[in-house]
Amino acid sequence: MGLVARWLTNTTSLALPLGFALAAMQVPALTHDYTAALLQVAEDVRRDIDQRETSARHFYQLAGGSDEEIIAALKPFEPSNAEPACGLRARQRGHAAAAAGRRGRGHDGGSQRL
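Request: output the structure for the sequence above.
Response:
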């Protein structure tokens, strides 16, 4: 019984550090994927904002150029749609800033796959 116990102890003490080392080597790939996902979400939100702006411009004949100008012009017509547009814009800025911050701090594993 002592032989089996020592064998299990030795195997465990060898396998655990090896497993942790393998897991630690995967962290850069996971952070890169997370950064890429943040960028993708920011682009999707930006696309949604652009589609809403195009629709509002067409329907209400709005002439505003920037996001803020369009939202301000939309408020008198449809305040219930202007408020979510403000939230979407803030969300898009947050995702883009988070992704840029992660890339700026080198959290993408040093690869240039983007």
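Residues 27-104 form one domain.
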